[in-house]
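Hi V.,

You were right to ask for the full record rather than a summary. Here it is.
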Amino acid sequence: MEWQPHSNGLVVPSRGRAFARENVGLLPTRVGLEVPSRGRASTRDNVDLAVRVNALGRSANLRISNLSLGGAFIRHRRPLFVGQRLRVSFLLPGWGVLDAAALVRWTNEAGVGVQFQSLGAGEIWALNVYLKTLLH
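Predicted structure:
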């Protein structure tokens, strides 16, 4: 089997399943298994927000079930892949529409964890204000 490094830090065999370089024993990170994180930079808050997700020329109306300054968990039953780039757009109460590039960091049967890639200072401020209004 031939192995190739991928731009997102994973090592990908010719059959397309990704393996995390830092995993001892090279455990697969296909749908249903999470890539180990190096620690989250911010806490997550449970929410229920509508989100429009665009990927590979297709779009879907889905739901965000938790949100942080760094990313979100989006409920989705169709497979998306670790490293896949998305565009997410959702209404942030008190701000308006937040539109951002995102990267799929992990997947499971219920959805995908995404990391925001392109938030501006105003969007980060608005997201922080919104998250502070939620009950912890």
